[in-house]
Amino acid sequence: MAFCADNEDIASICMTVLANLLERYEINISTVGFLAVGTETLIDKSKGVKTQLMELFGANTDIEGVDVKNACFGGTQALFHAVDWVYANWQTEKRYAIVVMGDIAIYEPGAARCTGGAGAFAALIGPDALIAFDRGLRASYMVNAWDFYKPISGVSKEFPVVNGPISLASYFKALDATYKAYRDKASRIRNSDVDISSFDVVMFHSPFCRHVQKAFARLCYWDYLNGASQHICEPARLKPFCSMQLEETYTNRDFISAALAASDSLFRTKVDPYLLFNRRIGNMYTPSLYAQLVALFHRSSSLESILGQRLLFFSYGSGAASAMFSATICNSGENDSARTQYRLMKESADAAAARLESRICVP
User: Fold this and answer.
1) Alpha carbon distance 43, 52 (integer Å)
2) What residues does the Hydroxymethylglutaryl-coenzyme A synthase C-terminal domain cover (predicted)?
């Protein structure tokens, strides 16, 4: 589990990843026109973290964007804003967008404390990118849920108020709803049927890794119900649960065991290899989904080994806000550009893994 010393806070860890991005990619700060920050770690109820990051941009004060807050989902919404800003403004601005997300997850003493963590992530957004988001294929699920919150009235404290069972069920409800909506949009927009076999890699918001495995098992269960079972290793295990009420599947142990068994081989190829950072850092809140993207590049052997891969993302934030969306690793620009982008991403990912290995182990 990762944590911060008393000389770090959310602004400093976000500034670190942003400074590394600007330096590694040799970004001219005048070419940045948008910067959004996703975080739920507040050190001020009014002043945004983005304002402190502006110190890195010198005389370039013409940069849109502010902080985005909704539990663990704020980073994804900041990413959406950055992507949309580039689509809307590239023709006139010819400037890039940057998204930064970070959090320090701390729980009060007790059973939940070991599920904390800390981390930050930054990404450059622009045209002809190696990772191309699929336009129109965003499915959202937004409701009012009191599963996890940090009230400021009365006695304010750093630790969240958490209702564990409600939070886990809310996550699964959001997953079910966004997967259905995503499949419907893919059918309408691209005239294609989508199931888990349509994607090479599936990434999830990760409060803890066992929950991710259960989430992936649910997607395989939905594929089975939709008649797409050719990729499921033991589909017969799911047959007894075809008529089970949806609410019951969230907690029924027999169902969970069967779904995990039926999806295990797919989980080991499409999900598990990319949980490297999540397992060893813990719940990073906003960056926890995107740590898996870093792991994808760290584990890759070459550009050719991942070119053409389709990625499915599920992002969730308590309260509740969620989305499912997809991307393709493609050579959309000149070949040298793709290789340069891959090299920089690979170097960044390998450096992150090296820092992980260099941590001091405390028994």
Assistant:
1) 12
2) 131-362
| Binding-site sequence positions for CoA | 167, 214
Question: 8 catalytic, yes or no?
Answer: no
Catalytic residue among 72, 81, 211, 220: 72
Is there a catalytic annotation at residue 304? no
Give me the catalytic one of 14, 81, 205, 298: 205
The tens place of each residue's pLDDT in the chain, 363 residues long, gives 788 888 999 999 999 999 999 999 999 999 999 999 999 998 998 999 999 999 999 999 999 999 999 999 999 999 999 999 999 999 999 999 999 999 999 888 887 788 899 999 999 999 999 999 999 999 999 999 998 888 877 666 778 888 888 888 999 999 999 999 999 999 999 999 999 999 999 999 999 999 999 999 999 999 999 999 999 988 999 999 999 999 999 999 999 999 999 999 999 999 999 999 999 999 999 999 999 999 999 999 999 999 999 999 999 999 999 999 999 999 876 668 899 999 999 999 999 999 999 987 776
In terms of pTM, does the model score above 0.90?
yes
Q: Which of 8, 14, 26, 40 is catalytic?
A: 40
d(CA 266, CA 271): 8
Q: Which domains, and CATH codes, for the chain?
A: 10-357 (3.40.47.10)
Q: Which residues are known binding-site members?
A: 167, 214
